Amino acid sequence: MPSKTASSLKLAHQAQRLSLMSSPDAVRKSFNLSYADALQEDALTILTPAHPLQVRQGEVIDAERPGLTDLLEQPDLTSLEASVHRTTLAEAAGCLETAIEASRAAQTPQDRMLSHLMAAAHTRAMTLFAASAKTADPTLACMQAKTAARLMDAVSRASLALHRRPMVAVQQVAVAGDAVVAMR
């Protein structure tokens, strides 16, 4: 069974297709536009939650899974389904609490996904480091440690990407005579 989001998108695409269809018959064209408007309204109705959604700590709260939240100004069912999907995957990866904690300051869905990926990689890397320390087989211990180190490198790179924001520097320079100015 398709999700509510998928059903809504299908209706919205049908509405768009009908509104773009040209017809020499004015009655047919008027009918298509009216039907497209009705489909678009149905698409929006599907995504409108039956009750107001609450937002806390970066995820939309699901009544059946309290504690999940999203920092959207006007959450809808798509946001709810995305939050549930992300947190279900984080739970399956064994890092739900870490993922939620890591994504608290995330401002966009991409930042939340990256935070959840970092939490999953960090959890797995730490598990591999612990297993490496307890393994009697030196070959296996080395493989586990190398894999853990690669995961931690990925976490470090993701953290840099997440926190690196474009900065604009404005400089005013008064020069009398010849000068060489280097910009960084």
Structural write-up:
- There is one protein chain.
- The chain is an all-alpha fold.
- It starts with a helix and ends in a 21-residue tail after the last helix.
- It has helices at residues 4-20, 26-47, 77-92, 96-102, 109-134, 138-163, and strands spanning 55-56, 59-60.
- It has 2 domains: 4-47; 55-163, no CATH class.
- The protein has a two-stranded antiparallel ribbon with strand order 1-2.
- Helix 1 (4-20) packs antiparallel against helix 2 (26-47) and helix 3 crosses helix 4 (96-102).
- A hairpin with a 2-residue loop joins strand 1 and strand 2.
- Mean pLDDT is 79; it is low at 66-73.
- 62% of the residues lie in helices and 2% in strands.
- 23% of the residues are buried.
- It is elongated, with a radius of gyration of 25 Å.
- The chain is built from 6 helices and 2 strands; from the N terminus they run ααββαααα.
